[in-house]
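re: ur question from the group chat, yeah i did fold both. here u go
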Amino acid sequence: QLLPRKLAFLAGRCVVAVSAGGVHSLAITADGAAWSWGHGAAGRLGHGDQQHQLLPKKVEAFAGQRVVAVSAGDGHSIALTADGAVWSWGGGDRGPLGHGDEQNQLLPKKIEAFAGQRVVAVSAGAFHSLARTADGSVWSWGYGSTGRLGHGDQQNQLLPKKIEALAGRRVVTLSAGRGQIHFLGHSLASTADGAVFTWGKGESGCLGHGEDLSDQLLPKKVEAWAPGQ
């Protein structure tokens, strides 16, 4: 499509949120239902199979739940329900689902590592994921290459792990980059004081640190927005 085209299938439904992945899409309607369509490999659509969907299809696994946020990565998906629980499904290679293994999930599965925590935001990248809890903390998991997880190393994390380098800062927004090549990947976060932090792959200047194109294993402030700049 060379021009925007309305999805006739969702006519009459009030869509309140959308997310575009590599080859699939997610949406939430006002009634709290989640919908997915596109490429179904690895179960990224959450319908219990790997079939492609050419039209939006409701994710029935969330019946009785109210979905408030969705994020489509390259091969996996994440959703947040009104009770603060995080659910993930799709490709599990390198651990982006956060279930302690690398298995694919054909249906949404709750991330039990967040039991007792209230998550308020999520972001799915290509092979890693981010979440923000109500206290402003940021958690990351999945593929650790290039430092995209922000833990000071390049280790994979099969379970969510708090980014200690951001301790004491209240993060308000976050985004996991979706480089489709496995050795690319970075992450961003903004804090309540208006600062922006980036980490991960520095190639092509995507971290915003000027001439420094090196990978960043820990969150680093983007000084271009420092006072007086």
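okk and heres the other one u asked abt
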Amino acid sequence: ELEEAVYLQTRIHQKLGDIDEAITLLKKHTSDESSRSPLFYALLSSLYQAKGEHYTAMTVMETAVSIYPDNHQLLFEYGLVLEKNGKPDKALRIMQRVLELQPDNAEALNYIGYTWADQNVHLAKALEYILRANALKPDNGFIIDSLGWVYYRLGDLQQAATQLERSLQLIPNDPHVYHHLGDVYRSLKNFPQAIKAYKKALELFQDEEQKTTIKQKIHALENQ
């Protein structure tokens, strides 16, 4: 009952905007061997991420996985934090460890498969991983996006377009899917549809670097 009570207290502090109070509560319990829990470390890390303190979030997860080295959920969260801290190679190794502990972890399969597809390496293995993830969670729009992206990397443009269009039916406001679809349409020489997809991505992206990339692609197509 302690774990549930602390979780609920944390959520109440968050709802009230008292993130520092929630952090204090969780630090109290994670510092006590008799009351600490994997959940508390994950919550504490997420609070630091919400404050933009990504390095602190990473150190919290490093401590957590040293205490609970076989907790696949903590390892998965640790991998995501590593990626946010610019450590993609270490994040990939951690996700591979997740799969050693839980071979049917759809999110880890998808993470690794998408990362390989994005890096344009190990594409056959990437497709295998993403297909496994898709079989486990057939209605997950993010996994279907990954499937479309790996097909794009493999040169199967029609299949890529089909999967990405299907992904948008499930996650219609994800800018990354529109960006991917724009790249696919551009490769298919369907420039009007590519521009339309890019403009939707531009509308949805918050990150300025991403916006700049999209603007450059739109400009290049409009001036062909």
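fwiw on the second one: The two ends are 64 Å apart (CA to CA). The chain has a mean pLDDT of 96. idk if thats what u expected
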